[in-house]
Amino acid sequence: MEEARICLLGYPWGYSGRMELNQSMVGDALTRLKRAHGQLAGVIAMIEAGEDCTKVLTQLAAVSKALDRAGFKIVATGLRHCQDSERRGDEPPMSVTELEKLFLALA
Known about the structure:
Keywords: Copper. It holds the Pfam family Trns_repr_metal. With 107 residues, this protein is mainly alpha-helical. It has three helices and two strands. The chain has a two-stranded antiparallel sheet.
């Protein structure tokens, strides 16, 4: 089975680093994203069925929070990966400044 790969590419504009994170590194974030995917499908179904606005917004807030947490988890994993690279004496794939910008893009 091919490993899922998540890549932190130059987004938002101005980033030069590239760090590929495999599924074993971001398993928790991937689990959160899959859960959010299901929640979002539920929100869409609720809207299509004409559900109560309060219920829809409550579920939409849960989806938003799940996405935010997944993003923060990926950035935190990237930071640990870069720190581990530095400890081994290797050049980290991204600078702390680049990771900080990614973190702030999520905030």
